[in-house]
Amino acid sequence: MSRLSLTFKNAWISLVFHFVYIVIQFYSRNIFLDNLGDEFMGVVGVLKSILQFLNLSELGIGAAVGFSLYKPIYENNQDKINEIIGYLGFLYKRIGLFVLSVGVCLIVFFPYIFETTEISLGIIIFLFLSLLSSNLLTYFFAYHVFLMEADQKGYMNITINQSIFVLRLGLQCLVLIYFESILLWIFLELSTPFIYIYLLRKKIKKTYPWLNFKFKTTKEVRERNHELLKKIKQLSFHKIGGFVSNGTDNIVIFSFINPATVAFVGNYQLVMNNINTLVSQIFNGTNSAVGNLVAENDIKSMIKVFWEMMALRFFLAGCASVMLFVGFDDLIMIWLEDSKYLMSHNVLIALITIFFILQVRNPVDTYIQAYGLYADVWAPLAQSIINLVFSILFVIKFGVIGIFIGTIISQATIIMIWRPYYLFTKGFEINHFKYWIGFCGHLLYLLSAALLFYILIDFINFDTTSNLLYLILKLIKLGTLFSIIYYLILSVFSKGFRNINIRIISFVKQKMNKK
Fold it and tell me: Would you give the DSSP letter of residue 341?
């Protein structure tokens, strides 16, 4: 299959499975809050943030390996692929032992960390060990999945992963409704990853029968992969920056405010993260496609694809951001049926801004990964310092909103300004002002569409009935209006958007002709 065909296959399979996952996740979240309580769900959020911190020891190894696999996959060099995956396993198993050791040691401090909570310490420890075990399984048994991702076969992993975890959420709802058992709920958190690992490894063996699962990483192999180790060390700093920017919010909220607020923010983050993932699924497989494109070293094609990705990201992120703004409060009220879960409008705007940045940064990140441009180790450290300093200063003065302001400042400084400059000067090796002209142009197109949209909605009447069906109809009506306005503006002014339209139409025609 062609790169475009595999990209579309990854996208539609990911979209279908993630949509199902979103539906049951929203339903289950309501049941979890009702049966487990705000404080317990806040503790779950904090424990997951702690595990994110432990996962810093992974130091970006997976991403570096993904980058190193593009060329041997392009050349169908099975010996080199086995060597790289074997080296990955060698590193991951040692990291897994380190994570296990540190995780067990951390438990000693749980009586002090969670002394203000009313949740049983035994329950917290059992939950933490269950979540920790799920993480360790990835290090010891699931690292082969990076080959699938680099080979544009990530849809296989998505199918297995989402099916198992939809099953887990469904079973967790049932044990809370019919047995009211927190221990059974945690047991399911522990047991279902084992099923996922079993099915994943079985699929990998079938897809890559030549893959050596017992590859011995000798001293010679480690020496041959010295350049890969260098990339891993560089990526370690980027991993730290990413965690501080996205993984410390819950910890800061827990430390400076209270556990219940972690749960309230978690409701908002659940919606944002799922929509972020849903939009990103459309681009599932593009990382490996771009990696193969970079391996071919066709700069004209690379620039063309970059602006196609940027235009499509702007379109999808813009539509999603506007719909979040107009419908989020209604969704929270219908979903959780309690106004206590509503946060200030400023918090919503801040979270939408972070969501938008996460979306439009992706084309730059994709090409940076494909080029292996990780030498700017100062950048993630600067981002981490900016984020923590401003978040702590502002949370004291402004409360929850201050944390997100700190995140936005750090992301705007490093992600939105430095990283594009770095890609264009060190990767594409062209004038970086071409990026700013294109980016600012797309931002202007979005603002123009939003302004025209808000002028036109004054002429639309909406039913004020508060239920899910009317909310969906309202969002469909508004979403259709905004997407048409934005689509027309981009089609007229954005060359990248016109190119992606031509590419999609040609692909559809090709598929129809085959039938």
Answer: G
